[in-house]
Amino acid sequence: MLRVAIDTPVARLFDYLTAAGLRVPPEGARVWVTFGRRKVVGMVIEHAADSQLAPEKLKTIAAAIDTEPLLDADLLGLLRWAADYYHHPIGEVISTALPKMLREGAAAQVVREHWTATAEGIAALARCELRRTPRQLELLAFLAARGNGAAAEDLTALMAQWRTIARTLVKRGWIVSLEQTSAIPAATTVTDERLSPALHDDRELTDEQKFAIAAIGAASNRFGTFLLEGITGSGKTEVYLQAVASALARGKRTLVLVPEIGLTPQLVARFAARFRVPLAVLHSGLTATERTAAWRMARSGHAQVLLGTRSAVFAPVPDLGLIVIDEEHDASFKQQDGGFRYSARDLAIVRAQREQVPIVLGSATPSLESLYNVGVGRSVKLTLSRRTGQSLPPKLALVDLRLQAMHHGLSGFALEAIRRHLADEDQVLIYLNRRGYAPTLACTACGWIAGCHACDARLTVHRASQRLKCHHCGADIALPSRCPQCGYAVKPVGQGTERVEEALAALFPESPLARIDRDVVRKQADMQAVVARVVSREARVLVGTQMLTKGHHFPAITLAVVLNADHGLFSTDFRAAERLAQTIVQVAGRAGRGKKPGEVLIQTEYPEHPLLQALLRDGYAGFAATALAERKESAWPPFSHLAALRASAHTLRAALDFLAEARKLMPPPRGVKLLGPAPATMVKRAERFHAQLLIESANRGSLQRFLAAWRSAVEKLPGTHRVRWALDVDPLELF
Ligand code: ADP
Ligand code: ZN
Ligand code: ZN
Question: Are residues 459 and 410 in contact, defined by beta-carbon separation less than 8 angstroms?
Fold first, then answer.
């Protein structure tokens, strides 16, 4: 009997029988089963001797899809671990791990089309039904005459236009295309000669790089976690490349995870150029077909290096020898919405441990969790303390906004600095965490403010497209020219990247601008184009959001201005300070990567704030030490463990009631605290009202045991049809 995982919110496995005489599908293989009134794809998780269901109630599987496991024991084990740890139904976890086409039953391996006539087709032939369509007759008769059917090439040889004809025959149910699997290509072991030399001959690895590479290499056949800390430009990627090279030389494959917008063509090119072995790339910008092809390349072992974003942590990599996570602090490694909210970074560590391989976490601004792990001896820190080449670390300074005349968000001091750097033929960068023209549209007479109907949020003015947009729910309406309340004039208040770009264009008409945010950079090709304009120095001034703080090498930027650091200084989220410090350091890292030292200006109304002071005085390390001490004091993670039960409904009452009921289900054991329920900071979002209940414990084991029992009770609560809920273990953001 088979225990089958099915993509459904019910957290259990379903029992099915194997058809008599059929080979029993192995664990990790997919099967077609009848589920309710639907036919669905399930995955065999276990074989079992008996079922709790009465024998007459047991159904037989409709068909087996795979004869070999689609997911090997290692990967299936990881997914089962994740389902347990995140308390999420295994069927949905597996579904997250698989590309859509494979979820829907596509073959596991590279396939060739294979056509056959159906029984009905043969019967139709016998009844001479195709007398008036000679070409259909010819195709069907050809297939019927060949018992085993024919490949697409054979049909092309038969008649050029066969596909059109075939489509009609398929519609009539007379022929079908079967997917026939071809053999799995053998894994190629890469020999040393195929690995090009480490660096150009005139450059040598630094002692710190050599030490890091040796340390990772020494752990090559066992689990070990390394935190590679080094500012941008310190040569981290070079360390990854060397570690990958040594894995390849041992005949092992590597999984490299990067943040959502970190998977740039430059990075892929750098890996491809170095190794000249097949790479597979998995990211959210792929079509379903591309994604499936990349996944198949990974599974078959054809790809020697798999580069991917968050969900690639679940991709099959046979003979895994190394995992690398670049920018490990990046929030995009955490799935923050939907049902299955996992951390790809944390799961990658679990995967490395299960498969006994080393894992390298790299960052210029490591997460406090990772630094804590170093402190308690769970991870080894490797430091790259200097930039390679001649470039010096940038100088940071605070600009007190209370003392400055302002010009569209830019202080007089910052404008002066920009003028100076541009006069020296250098490039400058302006960072602002807000896209659009202005975050608010207000009436000059009655005080009306354009708000979103679906959210507790203001609408952002987008001037070029003449729209008002909600950045939370996607609402998008025409930009009004008059106040809808009193008919008086309206005006945009505050700055977005679009407005700062406009202001700078007016102030520095000689200096061409480039803007980098989601409104102008939508595809990788857009990014490539803008990067090319910056690298060629055609663009002199860069304005952008978070997007421009990631990984690009712009050697001629000598000045970076953080327009407003004050977001995050007073947030209710205990991680806000960490995120702000990371952003400032990442932006600062963009300045002075060439031969000239960089200058960084941080505009703030709170220059005496302890966080900014610590950052300026002692750098990120100093900030991190202060912030960790604060976390310890207030018993926040990593000194405690959290989970959040989040709920949303059409009224706030319904969401809060659901959470209150959930809270009453089960008294928490000693050492586990329930906090709330409380409305979310932004209560209304996309027509739904959000609330959360926090579960906290100093002991991870106690928390996990409680969550396991509690979640199955929550699942059975009446009223779950009125709310959407999700359990978020190790939540990244508390809203
Ligand atoms: P990071 O990943 O930390 O930003 P990179 O590995 O991309 O740093 O290195 C930054 C630049 O310095 C790259 O152009 C890289 O080729 C070069 N580089 C790396 N290591 C060395 C070295 N030991 N000597 C000289 N140049 C190096
Ligand atoms: Zn008005
Ligand atoms: Zn909205």
Answer: no
